[in-house]
Records
---
Amino acid sequence: MTKTSKKNLRRSTETSGSSKKTSADTEGRNAIHAAGLAVNRSDLTSAAKIREAVAHASDAAPAVESRSENKNWKTGDFTGMPIAIFQNWLYEQNREWRFTDGTLAVLWCLEFPNARCDYADRHRYVASTRTEYNAGRHQASPPEHPSIAYNRDGLPVIGTVTTSLSIRLTEQERKLIATAAELRDESPTRFIKSAAISQAAHVVNTSKETTFDFEGIAKKIATVLFAKPVLQDRNPIRGKDFFELRRAIHLGGTEFLKRVLEHGATHDFADEDLDEPIDPQTID
């Protein structure tokens, strides 16, 4: 075949009427593999680094003819597969290739350059989508052996073999979670997992002694917010205090804020002075 640009090659078409592809031909597979090899030794732990790597991966991938007559953002440039099918296929190929999750994110970006989801920014979706795939909740039956993550040396990452938990929700609870997940541009399952892990980390962080002084910061913030104006030693938050507060909220979440209010209650505040919050347990 005469050499030409990748853009022109990807604009060429095959015969119409074919059904959705569930596997890549040799040419498409080789292109994806070559792109992954080109970037797999790179540090791909941030959105910026992943975006930089996409261009390098694209240069390394051989030009491949378009695999679909009606190209759209949901159809892969190199394999012609739909998004979820390609992702599942890539997890299976990766049993042999052993690319990092960062590299898989690069390949998602490369295969679907016009996807509505920014895969570089949401690169952690590679791990959470793997969990869905292993559980049989990603347009495929669960694989016989779970897909796992690998490091840059091609060795399994400890702790990537996952398990599943089931929960029961009322219809009102389900609708609330679905609405919140949509606002975050996430699936309900991913939203629940993210919220649960964050809450668990906040509880553990604030329930034991760590290198971060949650108690000291909580007292300081409570003094600034709630101490009577007559106190002359009440200093406003500046510089280092602000960054400590931001980190405390990140690591401790609502559990840290509870401590702030507990200390605030020592400054002659009664519970009736506080607005009643929405209690998640009342959502029936």
---
Amino acid sequence: MIMKKVIKLTESNLIKLVKKLTNEAMAPEPVFTPKSDFFVGGLFFKEGETSFNTSITNQIINDVANKVKSSIPTIQKFHKDSKFKLPQFIKLYVGTSSTGSFDRNKKIAQSRMNYLTDICVKAFQKYGIRADVAYKLVVQSYDEYTPSKIDRDFYDPSKVNPNSAERTAYIVIEPITTTGRGTENIGDVSGSLIDSSSYVNTVFFDLVDEEGILNAIKRLQTYSDITDLNKTMINARRGDLQSFLNSQLSDDPEERRMVANHLNSIAKRSGKGSIANIVGDNISIIIENKKVIKLTESDLKKIIEKVISEQTFGYEYPPIEQQMKKVKPDAGGKYCFSPQMAQRLKRESGLAHLVYKVKQGDVLSKLIQKNGGLANSIHSIEYGNDLCPEIKKGIIKTGNVIVFNTSPDTSTNM
């Protein structure tokens, strides 16, 4: 009779794993940099002109490229992120003068807008960034499409002198960066808030360290930091962030105002509106409700696999196909396992697999002892590496890539 090892799944483990699975873990996010980093480039077109000569165009492209350079690491990090959407940090504005018909003005304005957009795309391409990625970061503003109004029943548009100021176009760049506190730092912030608080807070006797609370709040950098701190305070049984601040700053209007200003400032950096307001003697903080996450049978299976891996072996590896992107065979070598086998191993043992490139002098028995779990043997290695039958004889070839099962043997004979 075979008995399987029982794995205890605590409430704490389940909460942590569900948060990780649903991408609720605390993490940095893309935000706008301080206003001092703004770049505004003004372009002045002649009457009817929609572009400049090659020399001037190349100069503008270089200027834009220099201004977006600092944002590239953040773009690369988040351009495929489903949780944090990259803000469109380049805004384009164009205008036309009063002369000409509405259709002609609109056509000229659109041509100028296309010209500015093309400049921005080429600026990104100087760093090898794809055009489709660049387009997503540009906002075409139509605020200035309409020329100044004239009384066309009184004036002849073709006779009115054009206003050169209306033929101005702008490229506005507000660089972005990656920032945020992360799990440990948010824990430090909540700890500082609690350390600075006191249950003794009256008009006659106040033991609250208001400066400590204000300094802790000022360590928050993004809207996600605010939501993460709110959850952390609730988990610490100190109420949500709003109720905590109101209980500690009830007789401190200046500190309440400074807290609200900072929360609104970092929320706007994250592309949100104002979230904090002073209402009477209280601060009101509006935090978006999180959507409900449905836990499927497949999700639950992943959670259980992670618990088994953490409790019996202490860690897990990325999926085999993800490891294969980094671990590749040498010239003349090969993967010793087929794609079908990789999927089968994933179904059978989850994430308990290590992809490894054989090095000069490696011996299979020692590799199993060092990298494999207790369930491994030459037989199990042979099973997982179906494209290299020589493993059955204990032979491994330098430059080949093999896969180990790192899970322990959880069965017991009875």
---
Amino acid sequence: MLRRVVTELPGGGEVREGQLEMARRVADAIRDRRHLVIRAGTGTGKTLGYLIPAILSGERVVVATATKALQDQLAAKDLPFLQRHLGRPFEFAVLKGRSNYVCAQRLAEVWGSSPAGSPADQQQLAMDGLAERADRDELATIAKWAATSLVGDRAELEREPSEATWMAVSTTSRDCPGARRCPRGDECFAERARDIAAEADVVVVNLHLYGLGLATGGGMIPEHDVVVIDEAHVLDDVISASCGMEIGPGRFSHLGRLLRGILADAGTTVTDVDGAGSVLGDVLLPHRGRRLTAPLPDEVATALAAVRERIVRAQAALANLPEDAPGDAAARALRARQATSVLIDDLDVAANPSTSQVVWVEGPERSPVLRVAPLDVATLLQTLLWDQRPAVLTSATIAAGMGAQVGLPPESQVAIDVGSPFDYEHNAVIYCAAHLPKPTAPAWADAALDEIATLIEAAGGRTLALFTSYRALGRAVEVLGERLPFPLLAQGDLPKARLIERFAAEPETCLFATMSFWQGIDVPGPSLSLVTIDRLPFPRPDEPLLQARRELAGPNAFVTIDVPRAATLLAQGVGRLIRNSTDRGAVAVLDPRLATARYGPKIVAALPKMRRTRNQADIVAFLRSLRSA
């Protein structure tokens, strides 16, 4: 079946052995009700490799993706293609978080019940704290679109509205009271999307939403028999974030705007709520970047109690509002009650964390945030997911031991690597500058920059230089910007998409960037012939959540936590090099520990099977040969 379907791809597709092996393994795992961890290298065609056997199984399947780009690809390209060519009818749906859909009630409140708006618009906008910053032209466009849209998904809009405008016409799970209690619940786009998803054979969701569904009892996600987790290398981080929560100034300012106008005559001022964010932020600031253990520091506990009291007063004032208020006032009060109730619950969790939770402070200096996350994601996943249904976990970069890391029972899982169809052995070289001092040595920084300069000159530019810190990036740009004879673009010079566009379009240009460019960058062709990586991307030792998990893991923490994370991220960076079957190039790692440390082989095992060298002359000769090819 896979062979026949692939031949229908535009231009005539070619079946790859890794893709065939993947499809067989996925079919077997679903049939045998086992979990499958499968590494499918770049170019394997893993999307069709799991979609076809999943659909043919006849089971109801949820595909959870970590990025919006892959979610959109599945919905706009892969699944419609299979509907036309698979030969088996099926229905699919895309399900997103509530804030992605326009809210019929909010739109009516800020614009009126018709696309043309109503005479009371200006007065209503002035009363509505969330709508007062909205753009009128954008509101008009959204109202006209919503009047005919069947989906109400923000992605349908031809032009992205400002965040302020979209906030004025949407809700979140924190403030939506639910369709049954909403005056326009029968027009709710989010509920309509869930109803459609409940009838579909394949449902595509964001991994964050899937995690939130697990944490809240599964009501957000329709019943399903099988889950496929694509880009599974970020599973533990995403689940940790979605099953946790955060409290920062933004929560209070959002609630304050939601309350504006509602509490004007109710005995509580919005200033009380707005100011709560500053009260908590001032106390959190000295703890930024630190983990907080129970019992919380006195000043933090006192601040949490004080801001909770303010929110409780707002809640009491809301309770005194009449249920039958005229117009849309009742609906607005209902949302405000929901938001205050959720915030109070979160404040209680933060003030009294359990032993299974980690509490820490992060975020920018002007807006510190208190975060709470589960300590042990593996146990949580085993209870909520692995014990419930078979799962297929796949990614181009999966480090050894990934199944154990996320709690998959060893006896119920199969782990395989189907490789990549790209000829890494002949087309790519990975070089470790083993002669350099260790990154902890004072001489390493200058020596690494000299090495980068030598390699870029050999490559004739055409380099993506990846750094593990902004500080290292800044110094490299400062030192090498004038030294190199090639154009140099740096992260921050332009928006990310524009930087990549210029880098791809202008041969000999170099692009210097940090961690956000380690994945999701696709630049095939000779514009990218060299990837340099300054040091192994180990997580910071003082990162609060990982610090707590290391304590839980005990003496093996470095091997079980730090090494797999570094291996996965390094593989993501290395993966920027070969993007199609004709690409040729080299990766240079300027951290000698890859070649000399005991854990080096574990990290190398996560990388594509490239030729390896420690000899600078070899890599220089190879790069020069690419220029004359």
